[in-house]
């Protein structure tokens, strides 16, 4: 979910005259950087490359990544929302920036939820039906 929503954030900002407002440079950096890194993590797990690099504590790495992404997306969301000018002379810029603020909030929430689940995976608090069946009968 963060991949799609993050793509929407930076696509909406990129389609405006963001270069005229310094605040949107930060929003662009955060959204593009975390979109690229999230896609790289997704491909890593899709191709099961994390099994080849077993010495890396993947649950801890993902928890730290998601926590950092959440914090920086909070700043990007606040920056983007504060920089939206409802009296803008370009109505399409206002609409796109307002939509980008909304989607930045959704991405922030998605990364926050991912941080929670990454924390549970790191601590070993989560289990599924298969693991509970195996541990009950062993």
Task: Describe the main β-sheet briefly.
Answer: none
> Percent helix among the residues?
over 70%
- Number of H- or I-type helical stretches: 5
- The number of domains is 2
* Backbone CA Rg: 18 Å
Distance between the terminal alpha carbons, to the nearest Å? Answer: 36 Å
Structural class: mainly alpha
Strand fraction equals under 5%
Number of strands: 0
Form type: elongated
Order of helices and strands: HHHHH
Mean pLDDT: 87
As residue ranges, the low-confidence spans are 132-138
Domain MARVEL: 1-123
Subunit structure: Forms oligomers.
Protein name: Plasmolipin
Organism: Calonectris borealis (Cory's shearwater)
Structure description:
The chain is mainly α. The protein folds into 2 domains: 1-55, no CATH class; 57-137. 77% of the residues lie in helices and 0% in strands. The protein has helices spanning 2-14, 22-46, 58-83, 91-123, 129-137. Helix 2 (22-46) runs antiparallel to helix 3 (58-83) and helix 3 (58-83) runs antiparallel to helix 4. The longest helix is centred in the last third of the chain and has 33 residues, at 91-123. It is a multi-pass membrane protein.
In short:
With 138 residues, the chain is an all-alpha fold. Helices cover 77% and strands 0% of the residues. It has 2 domains: 55 residues, no CATH class; 81 residues.
Which SSEs are present, and which pair or pack?
Blueprint: H1 2-14, H2 22-46, H3 58-83, H4 91-123, H5 129-137
Membrane topology: Multi-pass membrane protein
Domain MARVEL: 1-123
Transmembrane segments: 26-47, 59-84, 99-119
